[in-house]
Amino acid sequence: MQPPADFHRLAQGMISDHPPDSIVQIAIADAQGWVRYSSLGIAPGQAPASIADREHFQVHQQAASPRLHISKPVKGRVSGRWSIQFSYPILAAGHFKGVIVLSLSPNYLAGLLGQLAVHPEDTAFLMRDDGHYLARTSHLENVLGTSLPANRPFLQADAALQGNYDLSGQVDGMHRFYGWRKLPQFGLNLVIGLASDPILAPVEATIRTSRIRSALGSALLMLAWFWIAALFWRLENQKQTLHTVFETLPVGVMIVDSEGNITGCNTRAAELLTDGKSCLPNLDTPCLTSRLTDKNGTPVAPTDALAKTAWSGQERIDGLTLGLHPIDDAISQPRWISINATPQTNGRKGAIVVLTDITPQMASAQFRRALLDNSATAIAIAGAGRQITYINRQVSRLLGHGRDAMVGQNFRMIHLDEAHYLNFKRHYTQLVRDTQLETEYPFRHQDGSIRWCTIHGTLLKLPRQETQVIWSLLDNTARHYAQEALAATSQRLAVVIDRFPAGILVADTQGRISHSNQTLATLFGQAFSPENLHGRTLTEVRSNLAPHLADTSPHTDDERTLQLSDGRTLIHETIAINTQHTPSGHLLIYQDITEYKERERLLERLATTDALTGLPNRRCFIQSCEDELQRWRRYGGECGTLVMFDLDHFKRVNDTWGHAVGDQVLVQVAGITRQLLRTTDTAGRLGGEEFMILLPSTTLAGARQLAERLRQTIADTPVEGPEDTFNITASLGITLFPAHDTDDLPQAMQRADQALYIAKSSGRNCVCEL
Hints:
CATH architecture of the largest domain: 2-Layer Sandwich
Shape: elongated
Number of domains: 5
Number of helices: 25
Radius of gyration: 43 Å
CATH class of the largest domain: Alpha Beta
Helix content: 25-40%
CATH superfamily of the largest domain: Reverse transcriptase/Diguanylate cyclase domain
CATH topology of the largest domain: Alpha-Beta Plaits
Strand content: 25-35%
Distance between the termini: 46 Å
Structural class: alpha+beta
Oligomer: single chain
Largest sheet: 6 strands, antiparallel
């Protein structure tokens, strides 16, 4: 299995678009777990790495369903680095074909989590539901490959989507207040821990000062009015309790009058609005107005955002989300705050404003959106009233509408008409009953064309939230119209079958014949008409057609050659017919290729044989040598030898008796050579009077013995001339092949030629080795 040609370019483009070392690699593995592509590169000849024993491969192999899997951190066998595997199965017609793996660096995720920490001693980490760390802002190398104890509250089976707890950390022993947010659709947990010392220090100092003042005041009042002191002691105790509760609330609380002046706030509110500085005097302070933005990054004035009518006690504000940038730093990521305002009920004009830090929730939402936007599947989320609350980029590409144009609109905008929209409501009824739904439905593209999609709906019910539906859409427009075209051409296909020059037989999945032609009966020499075969099964007609008619093989394509008793050769091909990826029958084709086979054998003989001597020609002989070299390199064993020889003074033969006699000499030498060789040896004519012999698994001594017999036999065998007989001799050169591990054929042929040259220089009619 190989990826498309432009896949490497796309993968490298994706890696270059991200920070360096954030993406470790992008890889593709086949159904057996062998890595067939890696963005890190695979050296030529290098054995592919296997991920068959990796969790992120086995989870898809065991359950071939289209879902994203996020693995534990693993050390890559190709990259040699720690990484987190985002894997997705490759499916073809519902069958598992492999996985595509995106390997992200835990350090990259740790860097993103680091933006959530407020204090240097704070920590944030991302982990799976089984407790394994994926990333942590501190001590990352110490926690990779480890997991938290199973008694953590967010790891429990009945854990809420979000919550908090406090304890001393397992890694560094520091006491922190922790808050978690579960991401159930990914099996992940985002946990942020705030160091307790920086949080509680101001509170404890205030409590100590207040206690001293209260004690002094109580003592003085006790001397004067004991019963008044007792009353004030009770009031102070209540005030202190309320103050402690007010200061230790995990949310910020402000009291704002009708003019927008802040008359009071707790420490948490000051931390949220001024990064730990004292409370602001009013909402229009430039320190605050220059830092507030909405979700789109547009600056927002606080008094406008909170709607001044709230100060007069006329309305409530629930869940207003604003971004608050750090002081003197408008570039960094903002802290996200949810604002709730309630009019005062004590007769005063103004409001009590509650500020909740929802930065982790926003980070979780951004992380979820990044995953959805990079999904290859078109995904849309419908809220109450079938309103579109979210689409990813694939939906925009599929239907042509931009995200801003669709979000907030009703799904009616992509239906063909009103009746079509109302008819789709029946699918919602089924979805409520079964919680999942899969069907095919047409939608209208922005340009007016129709897109047929296979849609899968999942009902999503979250605590204290409205029910939503997650829709995934797969474009199958081409397949839908292809099916319509197939139905429209059914009769035309029958005409083509009747006039097809080969024998045709069409059977359904039960082996019942639906179409055949007269050519089929003609090929087998039987009086079978299509009318007699129609409706019968292959079992019924097999004995009449011929013993060569094989059973069809369901779900596979098969092609083979049949040899008939009269000498004809037929090619038999069985082709599986699938409709919407479902087997619907088989097409059997029988074609007479007798003449083609004869021409093929003739051409093969002409291409590989020397026409004069009948020996393999130069190209065929060299190929035999290359095959022997590959066999030796693969299986080893004893090396062989090459024998190169030519006829001494052969030009004198041509000049004296003519080329016809010269050809006779070459034919005679070729015959002698064939008689002396083993069945495993190969002789070839290189050209002119030059010949070469390949002797596999033969030592130099054995080759020399053969060469001497060949030389002597050539010299002792007279040649019949026009008027008298004459003798001719040969010179031979021998060399090992292969002589060593890096030896190749050109080098060996050069050595044999040098050995032949030495034999010529030594007086001819001899054998030399090199």
